[in-house]
Amino acid sequence: MALYQKVCRGGLNISSIFHSPATIIDAEAIYREAKKPIYLHGGQEVVLRLQNDLADISDLIDISNIDELHGLHKEGSTLSIGAGENHAAIAGSGLVAQKAPVLCELASNIGDSQTRNRGTIGGAIASKTRSSDWNAALLALDATIHTTKTSHMAEDYFSRGGLTAGELITKICFEIPSKGIYLKQTRASSTDALIGVLVSRLEKKCRVAIVGSQRVAFLCPALEAALSAKFHQDVYDQSHIPEGILADNADASLEYQLNLVEVLCKRAISSCA
Ligand SMILES: Cc1cc2nc3c(=O)[nH]c(=O)nc-3n(C[C@H](O)[C@H](O)[C@H](O)COP(=O)(O)OP(=O)(O)OC[C@H]3O[C@@H](n4cnc5c(N)ncnc54)[C@H](O)[C@@H]3O)c2cc1C
């Protein structure tokens, strides 16, 4: 059922149509028919957008009532998390704590209580925020992002630019690590990562993923190769960090960021040893 909503902003009446479909098929059908639609889940990003450009959004499609987007399951060697699961549910899940405690730890340090209880993993990944903690987890746990159109390996998802119009993330499958540690240094004014480092030990390899404020997230193949030969913090060398990705920014100098990367990598490697 579609509800017609009128929102009054600065004396200007702006209208958008609110939909609340119960199935993925219905949500996609509404999206196809609408002029300038947007999906809405926890609203933590969308509401910020609404404050700025509601006039450009013809239809708000609330996908939070779609059961198919929920669920936490072990599927073979992976942990499957429904796109509609919020950060608090992931942080508090017994299954996640048992199979990939690093994801509980990561989720429990996102934002404040409201953000954790409203914001979803699917919304975080769809909006491709640069400093999103989930981006580090996607890369370090070799995740597959399942959507209504296809399945994206995390690395491809980032390099290809994300979702196409109307594509919905349905679930994310993370390889279950034998160990994993996520450490982040936040900005002074928020819980966003200035630098976040996730080190994981998977069945056949180890991964080191870094999230910063400039690029979505990146892996460190040279450090991973060095750790495969000897898993010890002493193998860390600054030359292992890909050049040209981190740069001076308003929050921190390049030198400070590289220092953080070194400190966090060494601590995480030591905890995973
Ligand atoms: C105060 C605050 C603090 C925060 N702190 C952190 C932090 O410390 N670390 C961190 O990593 N993140 C942080 N975030 C980001 C937060 O995690 C995301 O805003 C949230 O998870 C987005 O999810 P949502 O369900 O609210 O998305 P929405 O706002 O509902 O949607 C976001 C975007 O994703 C699309 N979308 C939503 N679900 C899907 C889906 N299943 N498939 C396809 N597209 C979809 C929407 O159309 C929209 O474009 C913070 C946000 C806020 C507001």
Describe the overall structure.
- The chain is α+β, with helices and mostly antiparallel strands.
- The chain folds into 3 domains: 2-65, Uridine Diphospho-n-acetylenolpyruvylglucosamine Reductase, domain 2; 68-175, Uridine Diphospho-n-acetylenolpyruvylglucosamine Reductase, domain 3 (2-Layer Sandwich); 179-272, Enolase-like, domain 1 (2-Layer Sandwich).
- The chain is built from 11 helices and 13 strands.
- The strands form 3 sheets. It has a 5-stranded antiparallel sheet. A 4-stranded mixed sheet has the order 1-2-4-3, with helices on one face.
- The longest helix has 19 residues, at 254-272.
- The radius of gyration is 20 Å and the shape is globular.
- The model is unreliable at 1-13 (pLDDT under 50).
- Flavin-adenine dinucleotide (FAD) is lined by residues 38-46, 69, 83, 110-111, 115, 118-120, 122-124, 126-127, 129, 132-134, 163, 168-169, 191-192.
| Radius of gyration based on Cα positions | 20 Å
Low-confidence parts: 1-13
- How many strand units? 13
Please state roughly what percent of the residues sit in beta strands, choosing from under 5%, 5-15%, 15-25%, 25-35%, 35-45% or over 45%: 25-35%
Terminal residue distance: 54 Å
Helix proportion range: 25-40%
- Largest sheet: spatial strand order: 5-6-9-7-8
List ligands, each type once.
flavin-adenine dinucleotide
Which CATH class of the largest domain? Alpha Beta
Q: What is the name of the CATH topology of the largest domain?
A: Uridine Diphospho-n-acetylenolpyruvylglucosamine Reductase, domain 3
Q: Taking all residues together, what is the mean pLDDT? A: 92
- What is the general shape? globular
Count of distinct structural domains:
3
